[in-house]
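User: Before I run my own analysis I want an independent prediction to cross-check against. Here's the chain; please return only the structure tokens and, at the end, one sentence I can use as a sanity check.
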Amino acid sequence: MSALPTLFVSHGSPLLAVEPGRTGPLLTALGRAVPRPSEILVISPHWSTPTPRVGNLAQQRTIHDFGGFPRELYGLKYPAPGAPALAERTVQMLKDAGLPAVTDDQWGLDHGAWVPLRYLYPDADVPVTQLSLQRHMRPEYQYQVGQTLAPLAREGVLIVASGSFTHNLHEVFRAPGGAREATPEAPYVAEFSTWFTERLAAMDLDALFDYRARAPHAERAHPTDEHLLPIYVALGAADDPARQTHFDTGSTYGALRMDAFAFGSAAPSLAEVGALAQ
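Assistant: Structure tokens:
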């Protein structure tokens, strides 16, 4: 079968779960536009381990890994079935590539996984497992992890990399609570996002791997880069990473860009997704 596209989605704040804005409808339309997967492998910055771990629960556990948010968030569940066979397959592929991967029955789906999945597949009826991120490793490593896992996309597995296209929480929390939603996008956010999007379109891997030294305002856009690193996994896993669709849904709280990307020969177009978002 032809390979499914790979996705990078921005999950922003946990409040996305109850405040869909422009991002929620976009993700729902994207889920409809992509051929239905048999299983999902999701990578989130909120599960980071020194070496790869892959969840092997038969039934997923919803993790509320955040504090200080409205009570309604803590009652939300994403009761998707797990994908233990996919977990075993993923671990073996990573081991074959020389990585000391293991399965894990203690995690589940953190908010970086279940919040966007709530919109992509709201019925929670696609089996899903989560792969941990190695946040201390450089973009080149993340890209190679993606390349290692690329065969999964040809087997009907949708690889979803979740993060945030920009992610400066210090600036979000600096604004008064009631004013955060109305905070205009900071100019540096647009400059960084434009640079990164242009380098992606050109497939300038040298620049993308060295983005912290080359991109404008890189350290302000990402004081720590775990929320950007998953995009390299999605890029590396695509059958044709030069085929890309960029979905611009703006920013929240002035500092969190909510862009999404589909990579690969089967990536749906803006028109296809836009028609389903009506």
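Sanity check: The first strand starts at residue 6 and ends at 10.
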